Automatic annotation (TrEMBL):
Keyword Membrane: yes
A Pfam family it matches: DUF2568
Keywords noted in UniProt: Membrane, Transmembrane, Transmembrane helix
Region Disordered: start-end pairs: 110-133
Ranges in coiled-coil conformation: none
Protein name: YrdB family protein
InterPro entries hit by this protein: DUF2568
TM region positions: 6-25, 32-51, 71-98
This protein's record includes keyword Repeat: no
Length: 133
C-alpha cells in the first residue's frame, strides 16, 4: 500500500509541474508564454527540491512542508480550473488529498521505495551514505 502511495505521489509531482506549466501557458499572452510556462515549472521544481523532497536542502518543520505542498497543489488546481481544465484541477487536488491520507496511514511501514519506512533513507548503489542533515 505504501509503495503504491509513493508511486502515486511521484506521479502527482510530475502532474503538478506539468499542470502549472500548461495552465500558465494557456493564460499567458502570446509573447510571454515561452518564458512564463517554463519559469513556472522551474519555480515549482526548485521549491520542491529545496523544501519538500526527501533529501531537501532545508530541514523545514513538517507543518511548513505540508502548508507549502498544499498551497502548490491548491494553487495549481485553481490555475487549471481558470485555464479551462476544471476536471484536471479538481482531480489533481482530490488525488493529492487521498494520497496524503494514504501516506499518513502507512507512515513507518516499509516499502520497496523506503525499506526502513524512513522517507529519504533509500539504499544507494555506490558511494558513502550522507551524514546527518
Amino acid at each position: 500500500m505504501r509503495t503504491m502511495a509513493l508511486v502515486v505521489r511521484f506521479g502527482l509531482e510530475l502532474a503538478l509541474v506539468g499542470g502549472a506549466a500548461w495552465g500558465v501557458w494557456q493564460l499567458s499572452g502570446d509573447g510571454w508564454r515561452w518564458v512564463a510556462a517554463p519559469l513556472a515549472a522551474v519555480a515549482i521544481m526548485g521549491l520542491w527540491g529545496v523544501l519538500l523532497s526527501p533529501r531537501a536542502a532545508v530541514a523545514a518543520p513538517d507543518v511548513l512542508r505540508l502548508a507549502v505542498e498544499a498551497a502548490l497543489f491548491a494553487g495549481t488546481g485553481l490555475l487549471l480550473v481558470s485555464a479551462g481544465a476544471a476536471g484536471a484541477g479538481a482531480a489533481l487536488v482530490v488525488v493529492w488529498l487521498a494520497d496524503r491520507v494514504a501516506l499518513r496511514l502507512t507512515a513507518g511501514r516499509p516499502s520497496a521505495l523506503e525499506p526502513d519506512g524512513v522517507p529519504g533513507d533509500r539504499p544507494r548503489l555506490s558511494g558513502p551514505r550522507p551524514g546527518p542533515r
